[in-house]
Protein: Protein-export membrane protein SecG
Amino acid sequence: MSTFSIFLVLITIVCFLLIVVIMVQNPKGGGLSSTIGGSQMLGGVQKTTDFLDKSTWTLATILIALILLSSLSFTGTLSDTDSKIIDNMGTAAPNTTTPIAVPAQNTPAATNPVK
Structure:
């Protein structure tokens, strides 16, 4: 398994976790803290909100870092160096070391006047 594939799997996992954390939150402050009910669980409502907020920012930072690292580890197996089209164009290109024939200009031939 290539390094890029590993990064791709990690990015997918982080994206899924980020979606779950964002969906658990409620924009009006309810979210997970209102469904749990009671201040005994997870340290209370305020700490749950803080945990979800920190989780969102942490996962977003990890996602950006993974994307940047994966772009550095990309070997380019689909890059232009392996392209068959470019290889064919390279062989069909005219040889630049041979002179190119320039077409003659259509100039009238010099005529000798009759004397």
Notes: Residues 48-73 form one domain. DSSP finds four helices and no strands in the chain. The CA atoms of residues 9 and 15 lie 10 Å apart. The two ends are 92 Å apart (CA to CA).
